[in-house]
Structure prediction request, 278 residues.
Amino acid sequence: MSQYSTAPLLQTKMITIRDIVCNGECRHKSDEECAHATSLVYPYRGVFMRHVGRNDTVAEANQLLFFNAGQGYRISHPIEGGDACIDLAIDETMLEELAPKDQVQPGPAFSFRRQRRRIDPRAQALVALLRHGLSRNVAETLEAETLALTLVRRSLGERTSHAPGASTGRQKLVDRAKLVLSSDLARRWTLGEIAVEVGVSPVYLTQVFQQVEATPLYRYQLRLRLARALDLLGEYDDLTALGLDLGFSSHSHFSASFKQSFGQTPAEFQRATQLRRR
Prediction:
């Protein structure tokens, strides 16, 4: 069983936020666990697989995972390095108000229909703001609660998130491509190299990935890199080095891509969240 640590970030009557870090020692499927309460889980570092019955989900920083109360699941880590996630639980009455009806299972107990949704860059930025602000005691409770509700609303919005829609076979193919990209974020993969790893033609890979994720493969990789940058901003004084370490060709390339996605340059985000080390 993988070893993990849990750090409470926020506990109010309405919202509980925890930072969960797992070392990823469990490479094969873990023993079955069960979620005691419905929560929204936002991976922000590394990657893992969540197995619910025959349904497998790749959990990485472009995804939101739904953990439904009473639902059994298993976890595995096909890639070394472990993972880290923000676990966000909201009062069920509020969650029912926030969640669109077509995303909720009918029945007396509240639960989500799907296992995951793809979130947009602004949602990723909100995850980083919450985590950095709460872990450094910068964000006050009212601000954190407001940010959390904004994050959930954006994560469930039809215009700001995406639900997968494809056959099981195509989803598994896309999942293999995601694992390839996640195995080395800094590597400048070619389409041919990824296709060889996945075992299909480059043309078919691009078509299927676009169909399942509604975004091109190269953009998906870019967003994984930028999400990792959000995680690492507090550890780097030299932002040029951070960009190069993540596979960007130059500081200007990194800064422009970051601003296009998150509305601020890395330096501006660093200052706004008080991540610049003294």
